Amino acid sequence: MTTTNDGRRTRTVTDQRGGTVKVNVSHEGREVLAVIDGEVDADNCETLGAHIEPALGNQVDTLVLDASRLTFIDSSGITELLRLRDLMQDRGGVCRIQDPTEQVRRILEITGLGDAFAVK
Amino acid sequence: VTPPSRPGSRPFARVTFPGDRGYLRLSRATAAAFGDSIGLPEGRIDDLGLAVDEAVAWLLDAAEPGGWVEVTFEGDRARLVVDGRFHGTAGALYSHDQLIRAVLQATTESFELFDESGQRRFVLTLAGGRERRLPVSAPPGPPGDR
Questions:
Q1: What is the pTM of this model?
Q2: Shortest CA distance from B25: residue in chain A
Q3: For residue B32, how many other CB atoms are within 10 A of its CB?
Q4: Taking each helix axis from N to C terminus, what angle separates A75-90 and A45-52, rounded to the nearest 10 degrees?
């Protein structure tokens, strides 16, 4: 765990089975920002959620998933993101996907789940 | 990966790997390399990689250790067939099967998923020269809604 100059507390984890995804989780007030860097598939999607979920304490009301560096995600990964969204909704919070890559937009469109997230 | 076998034959590649989801990225990389070699447009290469990833993940759903996967790619830019088989033992399919089918419907011209007595196989057909298609039917809702 490190603290950045802007006061965010950050933690970076890497998928141990090949390093295809890296997640940087930071807090600022009641918001958690998770920057997902790499590829998420059926092999590592649960790892992704397991690293983000512990940051979602009761005081957190917004989860922002920065997908600007998410170069690949399949339906397993989308299912995991939906699970995180459900966790936030159950506590009255929101989950937002920020700056998705074209591939992320494509699979959200294909699966009809674009409306499941607030995509910005 | 097996290179084209004889001069004049249709481009062909075969990849085999252990029945472990850690090899999904290998199936995507092979799909991308094959798609590039036959001149698919970039968008169709992306669709091919996504379709193969989803189909191989389907093959390996609830797969018991010790099995292995064989995927063959054959065809050209006009028509490409991907045949995948799991050699091993697999349990009941997981519930997000419907999302996989939604992705395959949107990224392929046609697909078939065979699951008989735990012996799984898929066949994907893609027409590489066509533009991307939008979903042709109402997509499924989130898994929790089913």
A1: 0.85
A2: A41
A3: 17
A4: 20
